[in-house]
Amino acid sequence: MAVPTNNAPSVKVLVTRPSHQAGNLCAELMAKGLHAIRYPTIEIRAVENVSHATAALQGITDSDNIIFVSANAVTQANRLLNKQWPVINGTVVAIGPNTANALLSIGLKPNITAQKPFNSEQLLEQLTRAGKTSIIKGEGGRDFLEKELVARGIKVMTIDVYKRAIPTNNPKLSDNAFHYTSITSQLALSNLFSLLPEQASELKQTSTFVVFSQRIADVAKQLGCQN
Digits of tens for pLDDT over the chain (227 positions)? Predict the structure, then answer.
């Protein structure tokens, strides 16, 4: 995130990543002398039907491609399986470097990692096998990857291993004057305004929203964000 460092201590950055994923970004911002304020707008929770998700994961042995769409998907799948993965004969695919690192941390080496801009469109260009594909993901979210694979005649099985929820225990923000707001997904953006209805208007007018894709930028503009 490139932000001005003149009078840096007075520059406030609102970080909306889930609590367990905000540490590195906050540390980087603070190392630059910026004031990082944690305000998670998404909470990662276990799926309700744990037995169904676990059984589906145990059945990925016959998949030609096993695609992990996020680091959370890796972590939650590993938890559901109690770190006891079935034999994987197919191609292990990561949506980006963070997901690839999460896979390596549990002993699974990705065969393919999506290159920049680390999204489904890029991943589709890199897939080399066209057989049965398992997509390990969270409930809801973008379904572009699944639809494109099905359109190519590929049998797809999606496995939801976590769900996203609005946090219920966020601290009250002391002010509305945030120079920058970091947003990593459309859901994080919409949840932010749901959590802060009284402050939403000022945020949209005065804060610069730092987003991770043009798609999110377009949604932010539609919601009235000025910068």
Answer: 444 444 445 899 999 999 888 999 999 999 999 999 999 999 999 999 999 999 999 999 999 999 999 999 999 999 999 999 999 999 999 999 999 999 999 999 999 999 998 889 999 999 887 799 999 999 988 899 999 999 999 999 999 999 999 998 887 887 768 999 999 999 999 999 999 988 899 999 999 999 988 889 999 999 999 98
12-42+178-223 adopts what CATH topology?
Answer: Rossmann fold (3.40.50)
Distance CA 186, CA 182 (A): 12
CATH T-level fold of 45-165:
Rossmann fold (3.40.50)
Closest CA relative to residue 25, chosen from 188, 225, 195 = 188
Contact at 8 Å (CB) between 165 and 48?
A: no
Question: Looking at this protein, which amino acid is placed at residue 144?
Answer: F
Strand partners of residue 38? 15
Domain ranges of the chain: 12-42+178-223, 45-165
